[in-house]
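My current task is to audit a protein record that another person submitted. Please read both lines and tell me whether the tokens look consistent with the sequence. Do not assume that whoever made the record got everything right. I have pasted the whole thing underneath without changing anything:

===
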Amino acid sequence: MRKRLMNVMVICLTFLFVFSLIGCNNTVKKASTDITFEQTIDGKLKNITNPKDYTVSLSSNPYDYIKGVDSNKDYKYIVLQGEKSLNYMLNKFTSSDNNGLEEYIMAIACSEILQENSASKKWATGREWYDNHIRNIPKGVNM
């Protein structure tokens, strides 16, 4: 009887251990997926802001940077990720005071994801878009 009880306890503890490892593995996969997503978005933003076509890099128009063949694919990827991209880029704005080409490209993408009317655009820089966006969020809404 005692030996059987010990066997049952060992089996139960083994199952408990295995299930806890499976749970930990899922958490690690989720964390690595998020890191990979962030790295992917950063890589695509870098591709857009550092185009292979040197004539684009001479332009002062940020929209020229998202019109190129490769850049447009990267830009569309970012926009198609929807809310996940939006949240990541809003967090990038929050954690930085930069206000360059990358921020402008992020503002264009965020604006498109949010389906803002481009005719009513009231911003000249990415940081200005972000500041306007933050002011227009109702109190109590978390980003």
About this structure: Helices lie at 2-49, 54-57, 62-65, 69-80, 83-94, 101-113, 126-135. The chain has seven helices and no strands.
